[in-house]
Amino acid sequence: xxxxxxxxxxxxxxxxxxxxxxxxxxxxxxxxxxxxxxxxxxxxxxxxxxxxxxxxxxxxxxxxxxxxxxxxxxxxxxxxxxxxxxxxxxxxxxxxxxxxxxxxxxxxxxxxxxxxxxxxxxxxxxxxxxxxxxxxxxxxxxxxxxxxxxxxxxxxxxxxxxxxxxxxxxxxxxxxxxxxxxxxxxxxxxxxxxxxxxxxxxxxxxxxxxxxxxxxxxxxxxxxxxxxxxxxxxxxxxxxxxxxxxxxxxxxxxxxxxxxxxxxxxxxxxxxxxxxxxxxxxxxxxxxxxxxxxxxxxxxxxxxxxxxxxxxxxxxxxxxxxxxxxxxxxxxxxxxxxxxxxxxxxxxxxxxxxxxxxxxxxxxxxxxxxxxxxxxxxxxxxxxxxxxxxxxxxxxxxxxxxxx
Length: 404
Ligand code: HEM
Description:
single chain; alpha+beta; CATH 1.10.630.10; five-stranded mixed beta sheet; three-stranded antiparallel beta sheet; 16 helices; about 10% strand; globular; oxidoreductase; monooxygenase
């Protein structure tokens, strides 16, 4: 077995991507070596990067050995602000501090509930496309489509008025930037708390079917399971986790379908049949959550021949794992007819994504509809001019200028 001391060379994390359509080369090299390797993060600490599909599943399943608690010593934080910003939120907790809260949220995000939103999503998508068609070209599809759809959908799920979407988006965008100064993160966090707090307060006298209303009226006031502040924190989390992620995926998926006309033709030949597998394949291919999941080891454990000691941090690299050649045939190829559904783009284990059903339906609706209505959609710039944000928690496009 290898010990920690033998792994001394630790590249800076987030890792550099040489090709925007592939995982970072170092992550692939580490994966192919078969063992976890150390990387160096912003504060000089050197957590382990796990890159193999089987090892990530091992780590994320062993909740007694690898904790999600962001306040524990050795947790590989994204900034000094992280324990303050996220320390009290269930998704950075374990066991009894995680599961009961997850159970409170689950009913709003079941496959059935998300499926029921499909007609409304189709309506919103069509409305956005109607607007696109009136705009002067080129149009930035990130701002006017990819971001607009999930923002409206998550605001509707929560019961936040549509007019608030810009403020909501600006604050939450800051929270996922890894390099933003700490004071700005604190300010964005407080602004978001204040906005959601006001809405939640109002839901006491004006209840509706949204999640914020249910949280405050049922889980705070009726059952006393949450404090008001905890409920506000959940609303903030759902907003933060719920639109930037899906927006990046919608943008990246459009780009992939523009680049690969053969895949686009398959999708459009029978959207009802291919949209679900297209979504799973895009999730695998892009794996846009690129700096998570993170954990801290709480009991010495061997992973891939390396002894990981209690107190050492872990970062899972989903992009490398979802192209693991031991799991996926022709892993580098985008193939929307692929039948293996083993990707871990939504995570794995008890912390697996709460909003995955909602995101799936949004993508299933958005991609076919866009290309059906604008068949000649194409890039308005050279592909090499596209700018990707590589340093954020989620990978994605800064803009997607298109024309038709
Ligand atoms: C394409 C879109 C999305 C991707 C790729 C994605 C990815 C992920 C991943 C990888 C995790 C696991 C994190 C970990 O284990 O530490 C996660 C957890 C989570 N996601 Fe998503 N997500 C997406 C959309 C959403 C949406 C729409 C919501 C809104 C409800 C959401 C809410 C959450 C929450 C609350 C958690 C924490 C769950 C827990 O700890 O129990 N996500 N997501």
